[in-house]
Amino acid sequence: MAAEHRLWLCMRIQKNWVGGLPLKTSGLFVESPGGGFEHRGLNHPLVLAVDYDPRDPSTLYLAAGNGLIRAAEGGRRWRILTDHQVTELRDLSVDPNAPGTVYFAYVNGLQVTRDGGATFEQVHPLPRRRYTESVRVDRTRAGRLVCGGESGLYLSEDGGRSWRLAGAAGFQIMYIQQSPHDPDHWLAVTQRGGLFVSTDGGRTFENSGKVGVDRNLYDIAFDPTNPQRIALCGWGPGVVVSEDGGKTWQERNNGLPLRDVWSVVFDPDRPGRMLASVHEEALYVSEDAGRSWRRYGLDESVAFRMRFIPEVVR
Questions:
Q1: Domains of the chain by range and CATH?
Q2: What's the pLDDT score for residue 114?
Q3: What's the pTM value of the predicted model, to 2 decimals?
Q4: What burial class does residue 35 get, using C-beta atoms within 10 Å of its C-beta: 0-12 exposed, 13-18 middle, 19+ buried?
């Protein structure tokens, strides 16, 4: 049976590269059906996140160093939607229940377009310390979102027009994710503060006290094929997996050359298959939920974010 999704990566070939040297092929990549990876669009040094238009999954949105990019025709045709004043985007999230609405987190806060990129509005919750690292839209309700930056997690239920603190006050938030199984279950990872958990739809977050404290955690992955399986990754713990919905955690790094991992993702079409980006080493794959790993390609790379996106059948 053909896969229903394809793996997309926001990636840079980084080892021994510094600004001013020629850039090795970097930016947006997609896993090929027959194996290997194909570069799509422009050679770009800093693409940090990808999302897609649910009306047409061949239209992608990219959070990049030089702005919000719409990558149409399966990532082949790029257009920068923001102007020169908007740079260093960190994350983005398309509202699946509000066509044309895209939120993005960047160094000066949070912005939204509600008309597919024609106009933009600043909707950041705080007048100071505006840096925002991550934003996630509630998949069940239009205009409901959680964002996080230098001062904790904030919830808006009206499209960013008003906000309230939801938790993790004083912690640097690195990434936020909502469970695909239970819309009330949200997770957020931090720098040195560990994992924060919400079981009430993002209204309140509490520290789990179980994993990642005094470490930097960078990514969260819920397994679409198993409601109890969750993975985290970061600098020091490597890949950490829970098989009981987050009650207990196990480090799963057998076969990885380092415990410095940028991103991790589960394959929605192949139960137990997951991928991890090891810092300046390569992309690694596991067929047994992280219990063992093997090198998979993209040597000397850093995949800042990975995403399985529905395949478009023409």
A1: 5-310 (2.130.10.10)
A2: 97
A3: 0.96
A4: exposed
